[in-house]
Amino acid sequence: MKKLGLIGGTGPASTLLYYEGIAYGVQRKTGKNFFPNFTVESLSVFEVLKMCSERKFDELVKYLLNGIDSLHAAGAQFGAISANTPHIVFDELAARSPIPLISIVEATLKQARREKLSKIGLLGTYTTMKESFFKTPFLKNGIEIFTPNGDEMKFIGEKIATELELNIVNKQTQNKFLTIIENMRKIYGIESVVLGCTELPFIFNGVNLGVGTLDTAQIHIDALVDEILS
């Protein structure tokens, strides 16, 4: 079994989701009363979002790399980041990392290809929706990926930062998000929506979105479980 080193804290609620998902996922797959040994390095989601909004990507790489170095020192054999937005610097980070890293974007793309999707919507932080790092791999694989309009992207980004990152689920926010998804279905004909922020599953828990979902957190967790057991 391989030891995982996980960059967490971005934010805390999704880090708990990863912790439980990985521990119980390994237990289910092995069929034994066993939990894997892995290490979590908790960073600040607010620092990450600030560096992204100010486009201080060199600082972001250094910040994340310090965390990965700590995980490596703790014996991690491979690593991952439990958030989508920091993947804006994934390529540079992976090139400089002392251990292999598993990308949430690449894992989600593989799932979209398995489902033979051709048109999908993307929700996430403003950075994730606005920048090209998430969209480009899908477009290169012939999958059209659509985002909400500018005002809707700002609304979603604000609510992620001020509500979901603080583990607050607001019914009015949920309804607005559902309206945005429905608009993308009507306008673009999306077949599925990417929950491109690892906090988004909390606001959509038990809710029918009217389209399929690509839950990046769960997809990533499944990929990490497979790697632990490989």
Automatic annotation (TrEMBL):
Lineage: superkingdom: Bacteria
InterPro entries recorded for this chain?
Asp/Glu/hydantoin_racemase (IPR015942), Asp/Glu_race (IPR001920), Asp/Glu_racemase_AS_2 (IPR033134), Asp_race (IPR004380)
User: What GO annotations for molecular function exist for this entry?
Assistant: amino-acid racemase activity
Cited Pfam families: Asp_Glu_race
Keyword check for Isomerase: yes
Task: Give the UniProt keywords, A-Z.
Answer: Isomerase
What protein family is recorded?
A: Belongs to the aspartate/glutamate racemases family.
Specify the protein name: Aspartate racemase
Specify the species: Campylobacter curvus (strain 525.92)
